[in-house]
Amino acid sequence: MAGDATVGPSASFRLVTDAIPARDRVEIMREVYGRTVLKVDLDPLAPTQVDMRVRALPGLGIATGSCSEFRVHRSTPLIDNDDFVLLAALDGVSVMKHRGREEPVGNGQALMMSGDEVGLNVIQPGGLRFVNMSFSLKQLSPLIGDPAAVLMQPLATGGWAMRLLLDYVQAVQDAGDGLTREASHLATTHIFDLAALAIGGTRDAVEIARGRGVRVARLRAIKADIVAHGGDLSVDDVAKRHRLSARYIRKLFESDGMSLSDFMLGQRLLRAHRMLCDPRCCGRNITAIAFEAGFNDLSHFNRAFRRRFGTTPSDVRDTASRA
């Protein structure tokens, strides 16, 4: 096992096989992934290569990342009547066998299995990049009505609800070990909400999820998009990219205690600050940097920069040049 590992309300483990002695790789995989998330056993079908994060939340196990070819199976001693498993294949193919059925899960597909019977999952040559979740059936059942109706039914990952679920789960994983107890419980609630939407929830569960889990997931996705573009998006750009109205997006930010325009301004200022500190931009004047960061008015840029960082763009550049 490599990297960080914590135990608590959100036990989180990073598994990177290149940092694990070859003789220990399979056993560590069995212990951390095969017990923390799925209650399964694993047999390698190729030299073991894994890069994944495994996380245990209340009533929920998560594993995301990539792995080489494996045979993942659940024997009788590992049967768990309160276990409901979702595998989303983002890249690669796995063949899942359960309740007398066999289904390939390929690129852009997801599938559900129950933990109450012996099952088999064979990751095909070339390996798999995946999102894997193990839900407490006791907690999930009231949200989706009849769990048996969705077992071994291929689900597309491109739909908006499944996409929100997978993106939100990845954001939780990206948080590493930074989740507090409160954040862990909130994340669990939101993931169950989004799972109910993606799988097919009851009317009440869907209404609750739309007002709770969907709002949080959409806001996170929009913020991540704005951050990725350094604030270099207009409100209309954001609305088109996320297929939402500008009014709805503004309300999402207001519910989070910040206006959309303030958030976008903050990202533009951070982009300008990074460029001012970057030796590769030392030959560019401050006006050009401000313009590239999305400011058309140099006076407005200077005022906003000083309010945000407590200093001037020139002082930031001078300090960076002396470092």
Question: Could you walk me through the main structural features you see in this protein, from its secondary elements to its overall organization?
Answer:
- Among the domains are: 5-173, Jelly Rolls (Sandwich), CATH 2.60.120; 276-322, Arc Repressor Mutant, subunit A.
- The chain contains twelve helices and eleven strands.
- It has helices spanning 25-36, 137-144, 160-174, 181-199, 203-211, 213-228, 235-242, 246-255, 260-277, 286-292, 298-309, 313-322, and strands at residues 5-6, 11-16, 41-44, 50-57, 60-67, 70-74, 83-98, 101-105, 109-114, 119-136, 155-156.
- Strand 7 (83-98) and strand 8 (101-105) form a beta hairpin.
- The longest helix is centred in the middle third of the chain and has 19 residues, at 181-199.
List the helices and strands and how they pair.
Layout: E1 5-6, E2 11-16, H1 25-36, E3 41-44, E4 50-57, E5 60-67, E6 70-74, E7 83-98, E8 101-105, E9 109-114, E10 119-136, H2 137-144, E11 155-156, H3 160-174, H4 181-199, H5 203-211, H6 213-228, H7 235-242, H8 246-255, H9 260-277, H10 286-292, H11 298-309, H12 313-322
Antiparallel strand pairs: 1-2, 2-4, 3-6, 4-5, 5-10, 6-10, 7-8, 7-9, 7-10, 9-11
Helix pairs in contact: 2-4, 3-4, 3-6, 4-5, 4-6, 9-11
Keywords: DNA-binding, Transcription, Transcription regulation
Pfam families: AraC_binding_2 (PF14525), HTH_18 (PF12833)
InterPro entries: AraC-bd_2 (IPR035418), AraC_XylS_family_regulators (IPR050204), Homeodomain-like_sf (IPR009057), HTH_AraC (IPR018060), HTH_AraC-typ_CS (IPR018062), Tscrpt_reg_AraC-type_HTH (IPR020449)
